[in-house]
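We were asked to recover a plausible sequence for a given structure. The inputs and outputs are reproduced exactly as logged, with field labels preserved.

PROBLEM: sequence recovery
POSITIONS: 419
GIVEN STRUCTURE:
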């Protein structure tokens, strides 16, 4: 459920009609709803009410906007970060250092050091080599870094190949069959407080079966590690729960997910950690765009909009479906390919799809754009970096400004020797 609904024939974000924001801030623009973010954060937590002791770390990569992170910090969420930049953001947004988990396959020496400097709660190690590096840095400082070992369970998440992470050929974690040996070696290192294991098999999961299969294997691993004499107090179960992109999509609910987790993990006696991203942020945001013009095509009209693949990359790189709606629908429909102005055929949002009829200067929205939307935007074709707005009831604020090409140009330099 979200708070982007039609009132008097106009799509609103909470109590604000979208045309009001579009005329003040311009388009394209991302718009987030505070009430929706808070609702999703609450529903996810409630889903896990029977799962014992839990730790929730929002996957910052899904939406790193500072205002969004602040809302989640206020909901008691920590952060799952994958870079020094995300770590700094989580702290700047008010997340507590001890609630931050540092994931990511390529944490550099500098990033590991930053994590120690900031005294974050946990590092999720992706390899023995990373564990050795972190242990050496921590030991030299007379410290012990809290860590888990990320395991690759070789489970097919059944999602898009580009967002699957738990197959043995993927770069993530250490293979589950050799994990006990690696764990034993890392556990001996002076600079590490190795306290458990972590897993994440992919994103936008439509079905609980692969997750259940993966968690069963993690339970067996925990047993194996305990039999070998290790103290296991934390298991990080990652993120990945899917969200509806189409009205007819029906992914598992947080309550169904939580019930499965509670059932599988009931005897584990650990703190369970979660890294939800999309399920919190996805349907908490829309991207608003304006129609530039309609151009007749061979199979259907092209609706050329002022947003492009640089603003919302997901359709171009994952063939992702984002539901399109007119902000002031007439009730009429059209078959249209909605495309952006970028000089690539991949700059297409809908291919000959039935959508609300729109005309030049009309506003439209792409739904489910709150996760992996603005954060993946770029300035290809020297377009501005898309701004972000947060709505809260009757008020709204620009929470990320549009960055104009001139600002980006100002950071570029033609060397003297070319002048
Ligand atoms: N934890 C780890 C270690 C991850 O790699 C990810 C996502 C998450 C948590 C959060 O997963 P979520 O709950 O959001 O599914 N750009 C892609 C998605 C990439 C996801 C990468 N990892 C997209 O637009 O679909």
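RECOVERED SEQUENCE:
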């Amino acid at each position: 459920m979200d708070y982007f609904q039609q009132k008097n024939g106009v799509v609103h974000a909470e109590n604000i009609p979208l045309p009001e924001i579009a005329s003040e801030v311009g388009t394209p623009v991302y718009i987030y709803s505070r009430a929706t973010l808070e609702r999703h954060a609450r529903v996810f937590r409630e889903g896990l009410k029977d799962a014992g002791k839990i730790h929730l770390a929002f996957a910052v990569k899904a939406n790193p906007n500072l205002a969004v992170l602040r809302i989640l910090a206020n909901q008691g969420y920590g952060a799952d970060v994958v870079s020094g930049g995300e770590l700094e953001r989580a702290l700047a947004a008010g997340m507590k250092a001890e609630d931050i988990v540092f994931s990511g396959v390529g944490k550099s020496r500098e990033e590991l050091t930053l994590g120690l400097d900031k005294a974050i709660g946990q590092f999720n190690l992706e390899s023995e080599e990373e564990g050795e590096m972190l242990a050496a840095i921590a030991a030299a400082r007379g410290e012990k870094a809290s860590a888990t070992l990320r395991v690759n369970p070789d489970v097919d998440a059944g999602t898009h190949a580009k967002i699957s992470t738990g197959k043995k050929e993927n770069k993530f974690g250490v293979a589950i069959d050799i994990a006990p040996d690696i764990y034993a070696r890392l556990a001996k290192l002076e600079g590490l407080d190795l306290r458990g294991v972590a897993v994440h098999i992919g994103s936008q999961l439509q079905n609980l079966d692969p997750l259940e299969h993966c968690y069963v294997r993690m339970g067996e691993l925990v047993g194996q590690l305990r039999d070998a004499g290790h103290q296991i107090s934390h298991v990080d179960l990652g993120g990945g729960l899917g969200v509806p992109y189409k009205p007819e999509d029906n992914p598992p609910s947080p309550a169904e997910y939580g019930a499965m987790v509670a059932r599988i993990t009931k005897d584990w006696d650990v703190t369970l950690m979660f890294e939800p991203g999309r399920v919190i942020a996805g349907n908490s945001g829309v991207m608003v765009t304006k129609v530039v013009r309609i151009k007749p095509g061979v199979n259907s009209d092209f609706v050329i909009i002022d947003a492009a693949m640089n603003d919302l990359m997901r359709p171009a790189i994952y063939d992702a479906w984002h539901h399109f709606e007119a902000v002031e629908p007439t009730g009429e429909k059209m078959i249209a390919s909605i495309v952006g102005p970028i000089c690539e055929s991949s700059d297409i949002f809908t291919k000959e799809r039935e959508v609300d009829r729109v005309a030049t200067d009309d506003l439209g929205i792409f739904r489910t754009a709150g996760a992996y939307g603005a954060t993946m935007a770029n300035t290809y074709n020297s377009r501005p970096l898309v701004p972000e707005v947060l709505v809260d009831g009757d008020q709204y604020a620009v929470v990320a400004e549009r960055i104009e090409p001139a600002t980006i140009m100002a950071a570029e330099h033609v060397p003297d020797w070319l002048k």
